[in-house]
Design brief:
- The chain is α+β, with helices and mostly antiparallel strands and about 325 residues long.
- It folds into three domains: about 10-75, no CATH class; about 105-205; about 250-330, no CATH class.
- It is built from eight helices and nine strands.
- The chain has a three-stranded antiparallel β-sheet with strand order 1-2-3. The protein has a three-stranded antiparallel β-sheet with strand order 4-9-8. The protein has a three-stranded antiparallel β-sheet with strand order 5-6-7, with no helix packed on it.
- Helix 4 packs antiparallel against helix 5 (about 155-205).
- It holds the Pfam family Peptidase_S74.
């Protein structure tokens, strides 16, 4: 019966290439499925393959072909006519705004004059026509009231009352003046801003409308987990190796089986569950353990311990582990 062999792990580059190729073909298929041509009352939207791009995977060296798609929007005859007229109107407004904007070079170079003497003078004139008679009536009424109270002209009380009336009159004229100046400033500012506002309005009506994307559903190609494939391949190879170690251990393991089993895999690195249970007559530790590759609990020596006392009893196996010749380690047959 021949010695069993572990299956050969797959090549990680081949696995990566297969996974990437499947991802790309699935993404391309989904893109075409999700982007159907559309026919609406206002026009049509058509998806067309217009080219290809070559993409090379740096890990596997495989080259894949990725299609390039163009989305075309075609308006209906009525919608196209409306768009043409709107474009012409916007062009006319833009041209007019451009021609008028040259006027601003000299216009904006002049400092703003906030005064408007004509408006101010007219407001004062109109205001005094109502204010002067009212103040005159108030003065007559005050003088009559003072006389009725027995306060004679020239007295201190009379002078105080008339001074207070004068302050009230002065406040009324100042308020009329300030109101006139504010109205004059607002009118001058409006005149100043009017041509600027007109040009701004023309520009706002002539802006170019950016084309709108028509809902293209692109597919994302999943990333192939190259690191995972490499680690998986490594684990597969390690499992195959452990199986080989277990086979070697089953052939060589055992402490007192027979002459053919005296050369035993005794490397500490190949064992687990190690526990010291005793020692030999010459003081070498005896351990209970299991092989990492599996199997029952066994008793035996550790190659690392034997190598210190009987280096000639320790040998390196082709797998890189140490084996012990129990004849020499225990001086059997000496």
């Amino acid at each position: 019966m021949g010695k069993p062999k572990a299956p050969t792990p797959p090549d990680p580059k081949e696995t990566s290439a297969a996974s990437t190729g499947t991802n790309i073909s699935t993404a391309i298929a989904n893109s075409w499925l999700n982007n159907a041509n559309q026919v609406t009352p206002d026009g049509t939207i058509t998806y067309t393959k217009t080219g290809e791009e070559k993409v090379t995977d740096p890990y596997t060296g495989k080259t894949y072909t990725i299609p390039k798609t163009t989305v075309t929007t075609q308006l209906s005859a009525a919608q196209q006519a409306i768009k043409d007229q709107t474009d012409k109107a916007q062009l006319n407004l833009g041209t007019l705004a451009n021609n008028q904007s040259s006027f601003l070079n000299d216009y904006m170079a002049k400092p703003f004059d906030g005064s408007n003497e004509a408006v101010e003078s007219r407001l004062l004139e109109l205001g005094r026509k109502r204010l002067d008679p009212l103040i005159a009536q108030q003065n007559d009424a005050l003088q009559t009231r003072l006389a009725n109270q027995g306060i004679m002209q020239g007295s201190a009380a009379y002078d105080r009352a008339m001074a207070q009336q004068g302050q009230t009159t002065n406040d009324a004229y100042n308020q009329l003046l300030l109101t006139g100046r504010g109205q004059a400033f607002s009118e001058a500012q409006a005149v100043r801003n009017q041509p600027i506002n007109e040009i701004t309005a023309l520009l706002s009506g002539s802006q170019v409308a950016a084309p709108q994307a028509q809902g293209y559903n692109g597919s994302t190609i999943p990333t192939t987990d190259n690191a995972g494939l490499i680690n998986e391949n490594y684990n597969q190879r390690m499992n195959a190796y452990n199986q080989q170690v277990a086979q070697s251990g089953s052939l060589l393991g055992g402490l007192f089986g027979g002459v053919g089993k005296l050369l035993t895999l005794s490397d500490k690195r190949a064992k687990t569950g190690i526990e010291k249970v005793g020692k030999t007559n010459d003081g070498q530790p005896i351990y209970a353990y299991r092989y990492k590759a599996g199997g029952p609990m066994q008793l035996g020596l550790m190659a690392q311990d034997v190598e210190k006392e009987h280096p000639d009893a320790v040998f390196d196996t082709p797998h890189g582990f140490k084996a012990v010749d129990y004849r020499k380690a225990l001086a059997l047959g000496a």
